[in-house]
Amino acid sequence: MELFDVIDTQRSLRRFTDAPVSDDDIRRMLESARKAPSPTNRQPWAFLVIRDPEKRRAIAEIYKKSWGFAKQVYGDPDKATDAAERVMLVDTDRMAEAIDEAPVFINCMLDRSLLGIMITPDLQTILEPSSVYGAVYSAIQNMLLSARALGLAATPTNLTRFFDHEVKPLFGIPDHVETISLVLLGHPVKANFGPPRRRPLDEIAFSEAWGKPLG
């Protein structure tokens, strides 16, 4: 696919078939991820590919618990007044019961031991968090765009991050590594890729001064 076609049609698809994802496709996505911009070239990311059904089910239970709290903030799908918001909430609510339908999880992580001068010696306080977390999210975006180019459904979620203390022991993740986002990956039940719902450009981009139209 052409680059701009990939960007313009990449969206989160939350329903997956049980068809396996090839090793070559996963490797292609991870190769894209590791080529993301990186502050001082520290490359602080790490990725854990999870296929085992029992481990995916364990993660699904953690996700379900986290969504139980988050739903109180995001809102009840039945009470949503905006149609687009309702669709998103309905799909997310359903996903809480079935995220392990995705045959592959990719846990995207931050390795604090790689941050050098951007973190205190005890690895507890990140001194430049916007750069550090931005690097990991740049890698994730590269991964999502690669999935789109390969015709795969990919959905990121941060909800399991709130129970990091439960996720990490499942996989032997060391203390200095924190989970950032879980990418659900598989072949889509329906390949309804297309332009995501976004605010128009003239509402978010200005020229020379705040509020001045691009022209």
Task: Report on this structure.
The protein is built from six helices and four strands; from the N terminus they run H-H-E-H-H-E-H-E-H-E. The longest helix has 22 residues, at 53-74. It is of the alpha+beta class and 215 residues long. The protein is globular and about 50 Å long. The two termini are 30 Å apart. The chain has a four-stranded antiparallel β-sheet with strand order 1-2-4-3, sandwiched between helices. Helix content is 40%, strand content 13%. Helix 1 crosses helix 5 (129-149), helix 2 packs antiparallel against helix 5 and helix 3 packs antiparallel against helix 4 (83-98). It has a single domain (3-203), classed as NADH Oxidase, CATH 3.40.109.10.
Record keyword descriptors for this entry:
single chain; 215 residues; alpha+beta; NADH Oxidase; four-stranded antiparallel beta sheet; 6 helices; 40% helix; 13% strand; globular
